[in-house]
Amino acid sequence: MNIKSNDLVLEIGSGHNPKPRSDVLCDKLPEDDTERGGKIVLDRPFLACDGQFLPFADKSFDYIICCQVLEHAEEPSIFISELMRVGKAGFIEVPTEISEKLYGWEYHKWLFSQDNSGKLLIKKKTQRNQFGQLFHQLYLKDQNYRKFHDEYYNILMIQYEWFEKIDYEIVNTDDDLIDLDNLANINIL
């Protein structure tokens, strides 16, 4: 993340693990830990609000951090518009379509990939997880699997940094966002 020392930083969906550099935190449901990995942390200025309707003036933050939140949004295009309205730059992290196929969080509403230019591709999630809790348990209990997961984080999570504009497209297709039969699409080495 390209955050300058004097930047005012907002973190949306900070939940149980806010980033150290975040100056202001916001979360939609501070009293409900269902969709987060632990109890919410409230150790700096905090506001309960929906990322789709941010109560801040235009360009009031130099940088916005939004990690593993966009997949929960009702309307990602509204959410993304709010990020660009309130912030000058930022960082988005979302699970890839591959990650959703393995882990399949039931409360995630969207699948994500990127095209060759880096544009975020967003598709409505229509299938349930095929593997239940298998990969969640492997991550928790098997250090070799955890090492694999951490080593290949780039195929499981998209880390997208933006400046002024977020390049994205809502895709309406029954096809997967990424064709795993095409080796050119599997950039893991």
Map the helices and strands:
Elements: E1 9-12, E2 24-27, E3 46-48, E4 63-67, H1 76-86, E5 89-95, H2 97-103, E6 110-114, E7 120-124, H3 134-141, H4 143-151, H5 153-156, E8 157-163, E9 168-170
Parallel strand pairs: 1-2, 1-4, 2-3, 4-5, 7-9
Antiparallel strand pairs: 5-8, 6-7
Helix pairs in contact: 3-4
Any low-confidence stretches, pLDDT <50, length ≥5?
Answer: none
The class by helix and strand makeup works out as alpha/beta
Helix-strand topology string? EEEEHEHEEHHHEE
Beta-strand percent range = 15-25%
Query: Would you tell me the overall average pLDDT?
Result: 88
The total count of strands amounts to: 9
Query: What fold name stands as the CATH topology of the domain at 9-96 and 109-126 and 154-172?
Result: Rossmann fold
What is the strand arrangement across the widest sheet? 3-2-1-4-5-8
CATH superfamily of the domain at 9-96 and 109-126 and 154-172: Vaccinia Virus protein VP39
Biggest sheet, in brief?
A: 6 strands, mixed
Q: Would you identify the CATH architecture of the domain at 9-96 and 109-126 and 154-172?
A: 3-Layer(aba) Sandwich
Please identify the top-level CATH class of the domain at 9-96 and 109-126 and 154-172: Alpha Beta
As a percent range, the share of helical residues equals: 10-25%
Globally, the shape reads globular
Radius of gyration: 17 Å
Kindly, what is the distance between the CA atoms of the first and last residues, rounded to a whole number of angstroms? 23 Å
Helix count equals 5
